[in-house]
């Protein structure tokens, strides 16, 4: 379990080692590492909880054996006071058994206490490493997403300035110029037609004035 943590910590500390380089998606690989670490932490928590429970059980049994030994000694004293040496001996024999059990249980309890403290310390270290790597994982994920975005933008921008795009733009520019030229030509033709119409209308107007002048002269006898 703890070897796994050291392996994963090496992976994260080196940021993107060969394992990540081979992964199709480094972000998914980092997430997988974190899930495995979370599972290991849960297993470690369960082991620590069992060890603590075992320590408490041994401590309880040790106290029970010790109290029973003390009780038998008190009972032996009462038996002696009552003049019943045989009963006192039996009480002392039972006291000896409980004292021996208490001594054995005390040794087991002390070892279980040390083991539980050691496991708890390692668990705390695992959690500290997990939180450290979680922060680094978040930073790596942000960098990976940023790299993907930059790559996408660079590809898009390279496409904008490609020869095909430029040729397409030039074709559209030529069409716009052609449309403008056609519009100017139609405007010139319209202006030309309007000038001819104006001249013809002026000619008709001039003829009307000449006719009126001739009529006036006839009326005045000036012909």
Describe this structure in words.
The protein is mostly helical and 223 residues long. The protein folds into two domains: 2-160; 162-223. Helix content is 93%, strand content 0%. The chain has five helices and no strands. The chain has helices at 2-13, 18-22, 26-81, 85-160, 163-220. α1 (2-13) packs antiparallel against α3, α1 packs parallel to α4 (85-160) and α3 (26-81) packs antiparallel against α4 (85-160). The longest helix is centred in the middle third of the chain and has 76 residues, at 85-160. The protein starts with a helix and ends with a helix. The model has no long low-confidence stretch (mean pLDDT 79).
Distance between the termini: 135 Å
Average per-residue pLDDT, rounded, comes to 79
Number of strands: 0
pLDDT < 50 runs, ≥5 residues: none
What count of helical segments does DSSP give? Answer: 5
| Amount of helix | over 70%
Biggest sheet layout: none
Tell me the domain tally: 2
Tell the overall outline. rod-shaped
Order of helices and strands: HHHHH
Rg, Cα atoms, Å: 54 Å
User: Structural class from helices and strands?
Assistant: mainly alpha
User: Which strand-content bin applies to the residues?
Assistant: under 5%
């Amino acid at each position: 379990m703890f070897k796994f943590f050291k392996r994963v910590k090496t992976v994260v500390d080196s940021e993107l080692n060969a394992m990540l380089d081979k992964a199709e998606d480094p972000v998914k690989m980092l997430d997988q590492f974190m899930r495995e670490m979370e599972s290991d932490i849960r297993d470690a928590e369960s082991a620590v909880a069992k060890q603590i429970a075992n320590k408490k059980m041994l401590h309880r049994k040790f106290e029970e054996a010790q109290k029973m030994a003390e009780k038998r000694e008190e009972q032996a004293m009462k038996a002696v006071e009552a003049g019943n040496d045989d009963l006192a001996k039996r009480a002392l024999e039972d006291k000896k058994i409980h004292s021996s059990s208490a001594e054995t249980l005390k040794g087991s309890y002390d070892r279980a206490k040390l083991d539980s403290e050691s496991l708890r310390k390692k668990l705390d270290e695992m959690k500290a490493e997990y939180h450290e790597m979680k922060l680094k994982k978040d930073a790596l994920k942000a960098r990976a997403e940023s790299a993907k975005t930059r790559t996408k933008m660079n590809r898009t921008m390279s496409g904008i300035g490609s020869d095909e795009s430029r040729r397409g733009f030039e074709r559209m520019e030529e069409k716009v110029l052609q449309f403008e030229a056609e519009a100017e030509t139609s405007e010139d033709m319209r202006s030309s037609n309007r000038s001819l119409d104006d001249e013809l209308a002026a000619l008709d107007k001039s003829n009307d004035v000449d006719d009126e002048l001739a009529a006036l002269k006839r009326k005045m006898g000036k012909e």
